[in-house]
Design brief:
Layout (H helix, E strand, L loop, with lengths): L25 H17 L6 H13 L4 E5 L2 H11 L7 E5 L16 E5 L10 H6 L5 E7 L8 H11 L2 E5 L7 E2 L2 E2 L6 E5 L12 E5 L2 H11 L11 H4 L15 H31 L6 E3 L16 E4 L9 H10 L30 H4 L13 H5 L4 E3 L8 H16 L25
Parallel strand pairs: 2-3, 2-4, 4-5, 5-8
Antiparallel strand pairs: 1-9, 6-7, 8-9, 10-11, 11-12
Helix pairs in contact: 1-8, 2-8, 3-6, 8-12, 9-12
The structure holds pyridoxal-5'-phosphate (PLP).
Pyridoxal-5'-phosphate binds next to helix 3.
């Protein structure tokens, strides 16, 4: 009889996970609830006092001068783009493997996005390809620290310096992660974070931006935070236009969100330490197995914050070509939720190729561009093949070694018996990847 649960063997996961997957202990949950109820009691949902307190504390945590809260991460990224000076026909370089809100907003600023490839091991933007994509219209590099992994900031900052372009960090996947001992989000000119419910640092809908640059800070307020226009502004050209939001947007953070954020900030550093310990323990159980690779950097000084959207790397060639689809089916049968892929490659989506968003008689990717900088199918090989080479792994919030061992055993068992799976391998569908499972109705 087979050992594999998919062929009716005993499941690898037998025990109740207890609190291994619990984001917060119940005391913290209670504290969060109280903070939210206070906002309701005071009817200060649209106020800015709690948000300001959160902004300062969040900026301080990063050793940055300024912080600004937003209604979501999408708005924070757009404000960062505007503040960094992106305008008509300007280009930002962004990896194709990321959530759309790292770049799509640039169209509304009349700018353009040029997609670059990713590195197969870090899943972050490939500095060499970034450099190849630079033109004299490049204004900024949009760095995404993908699925908790810090991008190669030494190489990126060097490119930015040599070409005199800005660096914007999208830290939505990696709150609190370290690159060579330094927090991500502290390298570039400006950084933006999503704080939506699924993220590691989560407030419900919310976003935040940090910077040391006074002009960037003031421009970000000018764009979509008109309630802040009564503050002190130092830049004369900005002072002249205050009172109404320059972007025509109202992006204020809801104070129920900032109240949640403030409480969470007290616990987050301790929380990510527990996650880091648990996830490293998980990977240590799988060391040396063929086919599976960890999504970590081996050197000292790197951490992955809350390990958002934790992923593993898959090398089918080490398992006679067994598809990731089949591998995941077998692991799920063992009692572990896993699925293939990461975000779908953005450069292949019609919105970045053929859609005329603003009724200009041509695709927006052309209308906004001084020249055609689209990246057709076949131009970003790593991004295009990455769905077949990645899979999701469980995210342990608490260090419970016995539980973690059982979950790791599910993967180990499947890999050790992979030959049994080859016969019925359905192969991979071309719809692999994407985030669809998150938004279950
Ligand atoms: C979630 C996310 C955003 C957008 O944040 P929202 O809060 O959902 O608007 C931006 N960039 C990345 C990489 C994200 O994952």
């Amino acid at each position: 009889m087979s050992e594999l649960a998919i062929f009716d063997g005993p499941k690898a996961v037998q025990s109740d996970p207890g609190d291994a997957f619990n984001r917060f202990p119940s005391e913290v949950k209670e504290e969060i609830k109280e903070a939210v109820l206070d906002v309701l009691d005071e009817w200060s949902m649209s106020g800015i006092n709690i948000t300001k307190e959160f902004e300062q504390k969040f900026a301080d945590w990063h050793g940055k001068e300024y912080g600004l809260g937003f209604n979501n991460g999408t708005s924070a990224v757009r404000a960062a783009m505007f503040a960094a000076g992106i305008g008509k026909e300007d280009e930002i370089i962004c990896p194709s493997i990321t959530f759309w809100a790292s770049c799509l907003q640039v169209y509304s600023l009349r700018g353009n996005v040029v997609f670059c490839d990713i590195e197969p091991d870090t899943l972050c933007l490939d500095p060499e390809d970034v450099e190849r994509k630079i033109t004299d219209r490049t204004k900024a590099i949009m760095v995404v620290h993908y699925a908790g992994m810090p991008a190669d900031m030494d190489a990126i900052m060097d490119i930015a310096k040599r070409h005199d372009i800005k660096v914007i960090e999208d830290v939505s996947h990696s709150h609190g992660a370290l690159y060579k001992g330094q927090m991500v989000g502290t390298f570039g000119d400006v950084s933006a974070f999503s704080l939506m419910s699924g993220k590691s640092f989560a407030t419900g809908e919310g976003g935040v931006l940090i910077t040391d640059n006074r002009e960037i800070y003031e421009r970000a307020m000018a764009f979509g935070l008109y309630a802040r226009h009564r503050g002190n502004f130092e830049n004369d050209y900005i002072k002249e236009g205050l009172g109404l939001p320059w972007g025509g947007f109202k992006n204020r953070m809801h104070q129920m969100s900032s109240a949640v954020a403030l409480v969470q900030l007290d616990y987050y550093p301790e929380q990510i330490e527990k996650i880091e310990k648990s996830m490293n323990f998980f990977w240590d159980q799988l060391e040396g197995l063929p086919g599976l690779g960890d999504h970590r950097r081996p050197e000292e000084g790197y951490t992955k914050g809350g390990w958002y959207a934790a992923r593993g790397l898959y090398r089918p060639e080490e398992l006679e070509g067994l598809s990731i689809t089949r591998l995941c089916q077998a692991v799920r049968a063992e009692g572990v939720s896993t699925s293939p892929g990461v975000n779908k490659a953005l450069h292949l989506h019609p919105i970045f190729n053929s859609i005329d968003v603003y009724n200009e008689g041509e695709p927006t990717a052309i209308a906004n561009a001084a020249e055609d900088i689209r990246t057709p199918e076949g131009s970003l090989p790593v991004s295009e093949g990455i769905q077949e080479r990645t899979f999701s792994i469980p995210l342990f919030y608490n260090y419970r070694p016995e539980v973690i061992k059982e979950y790791a055993k599910a993967f180990r068992k499947v890999v050790e018996n992979y030959k049994e799976l080859l016969d019925d391998d359905p192969g991979n569908p071309d719809t692999l990847g994407g985030w669809s499972t998150f938004f279950r109705e």
